[in-house]
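Input chain follows. Return structure tokens only.
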Amino acid sequence: MGKGGALSESVLKKIILSYTYVAIWIFLSFTVIVYNKYILDRKMYNWPYPISLTMIHMAFCSSLAYVIINVFKVVEPVQMTKDVYLKNVVPIGLLYSLSLWLSNSAYIYLSVSFIQMLKALMPVAVYSIGVLLKKEGFKGDIMTNMLSISFGVAIAAYGEAQFNTFGVMLQLGAVCFEATRLVLIQILLTSKGITFNPITSLYYVAPCCLAFLSVPWFIVELPKLRDTSSFHLDYLVFGTNSLCAFALNLAVFLLVGKTSALTMNVAGVVKDWLLIAFSWSVIKDTVTPINLFGYVIAFLGVGYYNHAKLQALKAKEAEKKAVNADDESGKLLEGEGEKSSRKNESDN
């Protein structure tokens, strides 16, 4: 009874912790998206400078990561040569800066709900780029599923009341750059045994992003900022916004580290629906029945894709366990053989 009670208590603790991590990630992800929309939207805070906002985030996050690693020494830096940094980390920094720039720019032109619907195309982009770069094999059933997701997003776009072609192009560009970044992380980092946690990732990648974004910032936004009073920052607004962005990176680490990547995908779906509901009820964005119908189709396609990936991972793990079990049994048999041969020698 005592043992059973202790076991159920530990299981209950694990469940509560998992749900806590999920809730923290959903809250922070939700907050960052709505906060960015509030700052950039011309009808709200009216500070439509997405490059500047992204640069503020990168400067804040890289500074905080530097302090955590070099001053407080809470996290160990990754051993890295200059050559590895330039060839492997810098390209990822470039793609990340482009993805953030375009995705933040989209908030000026599109509703929060519609942006979440367009983000459902991420698995399609990741798989397609993976096939192009020969990281994934082409499979008919997966491609059919990808087409169903695309079809759902197309219906959602058709039903969008505030459709803006330029905004859609920005968001699709952001999806493509982010998908390429995710595939290149596997090719340039994971395959070479280089792994980052969110702190070391910000430590190495955020300064790259800051450097790359400074080029378009000088050309596009600095002249506009000089001509307006917007050049003077509200430290409370931008400080809390940057702190939320930094905390979100830590929450990703907690969620994936303590649960799984699949849990994060499921939590992402819950967050998307919450954002759509918030966008419709609080921000008063128009969400049409055709919008929702298209997104449900895309959502089912993404759900099936995640399920298929989980099954593939389970099959891989089972195969590994079977190989390990065969190796262990082989070693045991060898040991038994050695023992019997020694016994025979001693009898002789």
